[in-house]
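Interim report to the steering committee. The following record documents the input for Succinate-semialdehyde dehydrogenase (499 residues).
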Amino acid sequence: MGHHEVPKLNDPSLLISKAYVNGEFVDAASGETFEAHDPSTGKKISTCPEFNKQDTEKAIAAAEEALKSWRKTTGRERATYLRKWYDEMQKNAADIATLITWENGKPLTDAKGETQYAANFFLWFSEEAAHIHGDTVPASIPGNRVYTIRQPVGVCGLITPWNFPAAMITRKIGPALAGGNTVVAKSPGETPFTANALAELSRRAGIPKGVVNFVTALKNTPEVGEALTTDPRIKKVSFTGSTNVGKLLMKQAAGTMKKVSWELGGNAPFIVFDDCADLDAAVAGAIACKFRSSGQTCVCANRIYVQDGIYDKFADKFAEKVKNFKVGYGFDDGVTHGPVIHDRAVGKVEAHVQDAEKKGGKVLTGGKRMTELGDNFFQPTVIRDATMDMQIAQEETFGPIGALFRFKTEKEVVALANDTPVGLAGYFYSSNVNRIYRVAEALEVGMIGVNTGLISDAAAPFGGVKESGFGREGSRYGIEEYTIIKSVTIGGIESELQG
């Protein structure tokens, strides 16, 4: 597909320029809209409604009304709905992937991978829905019987980012619905169309009106976020995004004491010890981990630490691989990496490169904008001799720079890796079984990859520690965030049989 052709959907009705409230596609009451653009070409894809507080309140009211009957459904019934939604995603996987590449820019291969990953959350939580168990608790008073039940928390407000336009949404909606809750989801202003296609597929799956609502906004995003975090009808908020916004939303949610779970920024260390069994595998793992989605994931390697003895060899092999990337339009054949999301992102990447060079870092490949491709393209970059005083060590870059740091000892590198206020993911390569346990236990992060750079799986708990947030998504723990535990004590039960 050439640069100037508009991508084609097999089912053109899946490109929807509305929001989804109470089972219907609607406009904002004001009639106001915003434009969403293809980050590769800068061309407008379409518009979506610019929702405000009042529009959002209508969606909340719809979710509150739908909750009355939805919460009474059995886990098995909810499982069937989620399974149907999963089936619809499988049927329309090619179009979902096209929408992701179109509005996010990631290469089509990556978008296809995300579509499958996203659908898997519906599959996983369809299987969990019928297995939400309570406990029987031994009481300390002989005449008492105590048991617990798990009940839905209520209407959930969900706020998701643009870097995984499908998966960030399904990872929250899956467990919310499985647990018997209804949702108002705020889709990202940069990538609203994948969310709208998912909304249409929920309708086709027969999910009752009001159970799932999608609100859209760009400039009104803070106002919509405030509505979701302060409205007393919303009992739970789940947010994926930056730590700063997470802190603001948490303050707002405190006023009504909402249950919250946050998945915030990271600054992932990726450590290669000289006892790693296969240097090429470590290079490949670092490449996959660092440059997936052009470095725009919260779990990608941000600081790559390589031990003294293998540092130069690793740096050469790593840079050689990055030189062979093909950057371009996500729909073009052979393209491995697309643009970053917008010009502000390019600016940050460029600033990090310049800061690193100023402080003694050496650019082995890349380091420049790719204006010949478009405004949002930056060369995949490798910088060696990085130091902890560089911006790239202190901040999450969210772009295509691999910075290599040298270290001598295990003790030193774990201290460096932990020297950050956040802790989402961490990775290391080693073939020493003692070291694997020791270092995995010592790194202050919520998720660890050992001898692999890719750790995302619907079955594995996803989330961080420190300022990367709390709560877990996916896995059997993921549903706990969307239920409350109620204990029931029955007194006065006689132990003597009657008669």
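The mean pLDDT is 97. The committee is asked to note this result when reviewing the revised timeline.
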